[in-house]
Amino acid sequence: MQEPHDVFEKYSPELRLLLALEPEPECRGTEADSPRTGPAHCLSSCPWFFLPPATHSRRSWDISQRVGAFYNTLGLMLATRAFSLIGKRAISTSVCVRGGHGVAKVEDYTLPAYFDRRETPLPDIAYVQTLTPEQKALKEKEKGSWAALSNAEKVALYHLSFKQSFAEMNQGTGEWKSVVGGIMFFVGLTGLVVLWQRKYVYGPVPHTLDPEYKQQELQRMLDMRMNPVEGFSAKWDYENKQWKK
Amino acid sequence: MFFLNSIIKWSPVASRCYSHGKVETDEEFDARWVTYFSKPDIDGWELRKGMNTLIGYDLVPEPKVLDSALRACRRLNDLASAIRILEAVKDKAGPHKDIYPYLIQELQPTLAELGISTPEELGIDKL
Predict the structure, then answer these.
(1) pTM over the 0.90 mark
(2) Are B30 and B64 spatial neighbours (Cβ–Cβ below 8 Å)?
């Protein structure tokens, strides 16, 4: 596999500076009276959104640095061109934060994190990052023959790199019992609320549900021969005045 | 019902319907991965990347691929990763409980040579 920097050997010195292939000169806090389209060279203090997202690849990092410098130059050229249309104004020649602010603080959440996952058995970082002297000594011993390590030492080494074993990470929590229990509890509580409602909240039912009224309704349905073929009245025996057996 | 049997063709389970392009054989796949892990100056990142990618596939790696990976761990002086790899392939086999014992049986010479204990020997396969 060819090293990536071979491609850039052919570039002119100006282009190499532009693409941040040369060591960066010191960032200066200059405010220009007129737009200046010089090369951009404040890659390290550039806001993160001008650089492409970090890939967890050591090789592609220097390429992405160069790409980032290119984007920076592009943005700068577009910005200065836009300003030159409006008029000559004092603008900062680089969109980077300058004048003593320095490099942005590295946030914890941007660094690789440790995860115990079935699908990624080897996480990005070891679990224990800062080693005590005993642990360092054990790491030194690991460089020798592994057969010389006792089982306890092997387990200790394992737990330096990993938090939970596969057995521990895969174990169930029993949370489902809480969930089912909670469901049953709340359904029961709702049932009690409904019973209370029926007794204390709802008024009487309409008179049309009284037994006498229902009997009269039934007689009316039979009298008008509702569904006489296969349905309601078909089941009534009109001669004997009873339901058909 | 009877004539349906002649109409429906049961294709072999392992075939895929690519419209073009060469299909990599199992041997080529294994050889590629053995070569990957056999790199003499492999670094930690490459080992992790390779292993995580391999576990992402819908297969349990062959013993020779695992052998190559374990030797890579040895070059990197990383016993913990070696044990983790064994745990991972056992987990990868899932309900097929006979795969892992077969792998350990095939890897026994390597495990003995490098001094790698299996998770069972260390007791970390249980809670």
Answers:
(1) no
(2) yes
